[in-house]
């Protein structure tokens, strides 16, 4: 779960554009019919995606240190923004410049009604783009790449349990001990999170071996805050959330 806050309203697509500029450079710009950075940046101001050209340039500066181009970008920041690259790598890292540009064009076509853009995107890519907007994945990837920074998990072996939906995201085996980690992302330096019923029950059962790994300040430079035995150390109130009705389509007769 990730709490949304005052991030830029076009956070995801601006990161995609910055990544594309840093990775593919002029080839990425060419896919949109432009020959210079200036005209490319100005295009996004014209359609209302960015307030100024510098907004787009800043996203390029964020990703430049992570790619072998001629620019240095914001190298002074070190790996502060590496989590953004990891997220896009995980979803679109294998795309070539054309297919990657088409992902950005798809966003522009659907959100800015730019009819002249021709886009050919496979269904799996559309699904990945939806996943990009579910920012919980960003926190989980940050955890996967940095969990060794947490003292309880130092030199531990991580096992991914997310597919099981059993009330925790990862099991970390450290020597003879095993910890269950549930990752929660918060965009700002502070905020709230919730537990599902399964998470609450698992936390109640495993107590000190169940750890909430909060990824704070995700909009800027993320850092961890861990909470052992969250049920014993924090106060929660129970709320019943009524899910909306779900439609299903059943066969009328047996298949012979």
Radius of gyration: 21 Å
Question: Element order, helices and strands?
Answer: EHHHHHHHHEEEHEEH
Shape: globular
Helix and strand composition category: alpha/beta
Total count of helical runs of at least 4 residues: 10
Number of domains: 2
Low-confidence stretches: 1-5
Question: How large a portion of the residues is in β-strands, by DSSP E?
Answer: 5-15%
Number of strands: 6
Give a written overview of the molecule.
This protein is of the alpha/beta class. It has 2 domains: 2-134, no CATH class; 139-233, 3-Layer(aba) Sandwich (Trna Endonuclease, Chain: A, domain 1). Helices cover 40% and strands 13% of the residues. It is built from 10 helices and 6 strands, in the order E-H-H-H-H-H-H-H-H-E-E-E-H-E-E-H. Strands 1, 2, 3, 4, 5 and 6 form a 6-stranded mixed beta sheet that branches. Strand 5 (210-216) and strand 6 (223-228) form a beta hairpin. Helix 3 (37-46) packs across helix 4 and helix 5 packs antiparallel against helix 7. The longest helix is centred in the middle third of the chain and has 16 residues, at 97-112. The protein is globular and about 60 Å long. It starts with a strand and ends in a 23-residue tail after the last helix. Mean pLDDT is 90; it is low at 1-5.
């Amino acid at each position: 779960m990730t709490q949304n806050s005052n991030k830029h309203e076009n956070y995801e697509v601006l990161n995609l554009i910055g990544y594309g500029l840093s990775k593919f450079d002029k080839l990425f710009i060419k896919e949109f019919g432009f020959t210079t950075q200036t005209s490319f940046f100005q295009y996004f101001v014209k359609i209302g995606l960015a307030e100024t050209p510098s907004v787009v340039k800043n996203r390029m500066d964020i990703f430049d240190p992570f790619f072998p181009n001629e620019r240095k970008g914001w190298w002074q920041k070190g790996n502060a923004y590496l989590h953004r690259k990891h997220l896009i790598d995980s979803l679109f890292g294998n795309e070539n410049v054309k297919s990657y540009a088409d992902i950005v064009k798809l966003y522009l076509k659907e959100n800015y009604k730019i009819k002249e853009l021709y886009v050919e995107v496979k269904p799996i890519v559309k699904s990945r783009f939806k996943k990009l907007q579910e920012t919980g994945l960003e926190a989980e990837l940050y955890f996967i790449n940095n969990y060794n920074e947490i003292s309880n998990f130092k030199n531990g072996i991580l096992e991914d349990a997310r597919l099981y939906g059993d009330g925790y995201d990862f099991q970390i085996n450290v020597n003879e001990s095993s910890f269950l980690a549930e990752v929660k992302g918060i965009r700002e330096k502070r905020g709230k999170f919730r537990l599902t019923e399964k998470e609450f029950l698992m936390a109640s059962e495993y107590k000190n071996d169940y750890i909430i790994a909060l990824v704070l300040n995700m909009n800027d430079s993320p850092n961890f805050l861990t909470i052992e035995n969250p049920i014993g150390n924090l106060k929660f109130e129970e709320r019943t959330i009524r899910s909306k009705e779900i439609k299903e389509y059943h066969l009328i007769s047996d298949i012979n």
